[in-house]
Amino acid sequence: MDALSENLSTLLEGARLPLPARDLPEIVIYGAGNCGRNLARVAKGKGITVLAFLDARAESLGAIDGIPCHPPAGEAARSFAKKGIPAVIAVFNYAADPRSIISLLLEAGFASIISYFEIHERLQIAPEFWLAPRHGLYERREEILQGLEFFQDSVSRQVYHDHLALRLTFDQSLLATPAIETQYAPEDLAPVRQPMRLIDGGAFVGDTVDFFVDQGVRMEAVAAFEPDMMNFRKLVDASPRYTEKGIETLLYPCGLGAETGLLRFQGGNGAGSQLTESGDLHVQVLALDDVLPNFRPTLIKLDIEGAEPDTLKGACAMIHRGMPDLAVCVYHTPAHLWEIPRLISEMFPFYRFSLRSHRFNGFDTVLYAAKG
Fold first, then answer.
1. 26-122: CATH architecture
2. What is the pTM of this model?
3. CATH class (in words) of the domain with range 180-371
4. Tens of pLDDT along 147-165?
5. pLDDT given at position 277
6. Which of 51, 75, 144, 220 is deepest in the core (most CB within 10 A)?
7. Could you tell me the residue ranges of all domains in the chain?
8. How far is CA 251 from CA 39, 183, 224, 234, 270, in A?
9. Helix or strand holding residue 302 (H, E)
């Protein structure tokens, strides 16, 4: 057992990681977006007084639900800090570096800064993407430790360890600066196969195809799947750029899954639109083996809001036949980080794995699988 395994094993013992003892009668919230507003509602329901939001847009926001907004570096923020009021970070998205937020709050004088990860557990907020109560990790200790062994290179093992250590300790300094510009084609992994035949699951507005085109990748064909109609219309608008370059372009306003059929879908959330039992729409979901039996992809990319395991099952014959490279997001639910490599290993034992993170806060963490 190496040092990473030993440390992860210790962290997963659980009893050593209680929540810090904190008295929270009053707080200020950094971030007045959806995350902060939801936190304010939950905190109020738990008897916590939210004195203010701290947000760079404070002047235009004014007040939200009766709670005033102030600039995070302004006089009001410094006054709260002097009084010892805790500042709770309520930013949980792919674009915001929590380390820069912490630095800003420290400069304002806050001695007590509470991460969103801690407050999420303390106030029992509903799970969001990978973020969920830690007891679920303690209960699956053996699976998580086994998951580390799917990765052989030191970078992947470190990424796996650090993501789980973050979840267990809330230490936001653990995550390295993400490789934002190289998602789906990390510079330290083998180059993508050319000419590329891409299956783009969760195509959004064509950003992945645009990335490969801009990188000079010779693309022969793309089959793009995007069930959110707002996104799909933008994808259609973008598609002439691909056909002009001689790329065979197939666009599907559909989701992907294990079987072909109709499922409920929650749209209108941009990149976060997803299949869900509480969705207000019905969308067509396709199994790749049904709809593209002869496509012969060289790369299957999946960023489909938690439907990745089902989609892999629905592409079983395709993957066995052509052994394409895989780029599969593993951040949408807590267990995908170790469950998806295990699933792929069981279904397709010819792959070797790498793990890279491409955005802040654990977002856009991608499992790369290539024929070993």
1. 3-Layer(aba) Sandwich (3.40)
2. 0.93
3. alpha beta
4. 999 999 999 999 999 999 9
5. 64
6. 144
7. 26-122, 180-371
8. 38, 22, 5, 11, 18
9. strand 299-302
